[in-house]
Design a protein that fits this description.
This protein is α+β, with helices and mostly antiparallel strands. Helix content is 34%, strand content 21%. The chain has a single domain (60-223), classed as Orthogonal Bundle (Transferase(Phosphotransferase), domain 1), CATH 1.10.510.
């Protein structure tokens, strides 16, 4: 059995059959389940809405935490991760929900090739393009400047702020760089955020991944987009 504070995954009698149980408020669990089922990221998944579970077959299931301990993602793995998570994120946004950040354990890796978000902890409602904060939150490891600056409740930030969090997550998994610690070394005198970002992304210069991360990490949250071309 694989278990975290946000979910548990049980294997049936050492077979290739697994059952996913997501914890959290019912309406948020439902949205995560539907984002897996309706996007066909996991093609053999069966969503049982009455039992609130997803049943699927797999050879291996691990947390992203465990997966990256074996080493950084390859470029092809990182691209696949972007593709899978972006489908889930888009589905949730269409239905009025968005993540405001991510932790490694929020994501599971199936058969070393499929990446799925299975935690409701960092998921909130979106109203008129804004993520709404009505109660205190635990700051996720992969956060963003807008969430870090929240000081009062209620508060709101543009839902595209979360794209920075996804970019930071991808950067960590691909290059083992934690963007906040890297940015701390830069002077506050530099008003153009893109300059230190360029320095951080130097190993990826002018690849498709470089431009994807540049779009995610744009200084203005309203101008961030998830686009890999």
């Amino acid at each position: 059995m694989l278990a975290t504070k946000g979910y548990r995954i049980e294997q049936t009698n050492n077979t290739d059959r697994f059952t996913l149980y997501i914890k959290g408020p019912t309406h948020l669990k439902d949205e995560i389940y539907k984002s897996i089922d309706n996007t066909n990221i996991l093609s053999n998944a069966f969503y049982n809405d009455e039992l609130e579970t997803i049943i699927f077959t797999a050879e291996t299931v691990v947390t992203l935490t465990s997966f990256v301990k074996k080493g950084c993602l390859t470029m092809s793995q990182a691209v696949k991760m972007i593709n899978d998570l972006s489908k889930q994120i888009a589905h949730l946004e269409i239905n009025g929900f968005s993540f405001y950040g991510y932790d490694l354990d929020d994501i599971i890796v199936i058969n070393d090739t499929i990446f799925i978000i299975v935690n409701t902890s960092n998921l909130l409602d979106v109203v008129e393009d804004n993520i709404i904060f009505n109660s205190p939150i635990k700051l996720p490891y992969f956060s963003n400047p807008e969430v870090n600056k929240l000081t009062i409740l209620p508060s709101k930030i543009n839902y595209r702020s979360s794209y920075y969090s996804l970019g930071a997550l991808i950067l960590f998994c691909l290059l083992n760089l934690y963007i906040y610690s890297e940015l701390d070394s830069y002077s506050e005198l530099d008003s153009q955020l893109e300059t230190p970002i360029d320095d951080i992304l130097q190993p990826l210069y002018y690849t498709k991944m470089y431009w994807f991360l540049k779009r995610c990490l744009h200084k203005k949250s309203e101008q961030r987009i998830l686009l890999f071309i």
